[in-house]
């Protein structure tokens, strides 16, 4: 049994349904975790603006990680003293692993002559088009556009051209992660690095507790997090094959998609009494 879990979860396609963005199937499990004071930490490609809104929807007040590990936000109510390297961001402390968005926009501009017709930068896509591409409503799309640490691109080329594009980005000091819908251009930080940093912060705050990390994800940009967690849950996807991981120990591959698989796997890992979940459905 996992006595002191820290749950790190991807959102789109994992806690949120890939098509509808609903978390309905995970509501009772989220309520159980909240009641038991088990941190559920979003570790996502989404922006800070999106997370502030989503956390209200799912009644979550935990720290969160944005833009594929580029930055971590800690609520001051939970962490009254700023960890080393953090800056003040209102009600939150912010720790960043990445250069700002403009750096990556400029880098992409440098490559534009070479890959002119093969991609479209997020900053050149209208809010209406972001909405159409993602299925988000206009308000959600506007929050998604507020990138701070990286630049997503919509890829139009073939696999061979994409490999050349990734190589060119890396030669200029950047890194590319494949998300569910976009390529994410940014620094070398990833969800796994951010997860370990935040686990260390929890350990520094409570050194008497042996925390264990549970990571849940469904896309390529979740692999670093899944490989480095104490327990990994690969969520089945309706749009691609299950992720291939190097690890074999403490690894679950769900049969159910999205939030259904999310809830089923955590019920198993946390040994949640069925009666507890049934009571929360009432």
From TrEMBL:
Residues spanning the signal sequence: none
Q: Which Pfam families match?
A: Hydrolase_3
Q: Which GO terms describe its molecular function?
A: magnesium ion binding; mannosyl-3-phosphoglycerate phosphatase activity
From the UniProt record, give one GO term of the biological process aspect.
mannosylglycerate biosynthetic process
Q: Which UniProt keywords apply?
A: Hydrolase, Magnesium, Metal-binding
Q: What is this protein called?
A: HAD-IIB family hydrolase
GO cellular component: a single term:
cytosol
Where on the tree of life does the source sit, at the highest rank? Answer: Bacteria
Q: What InterPro entries does the annotation carry?
A: HAD-like_sf, HAD-SF-IIB-MPGP, HAD-SF_hydro_IIB, HAD_sf
NCBIfam families xref list: HAD-SF-IIB (TIGR01484), HAD-SF-IIB-MPGP (TIGR01486)
SUPFAM superfamilies in the record: HAD-like
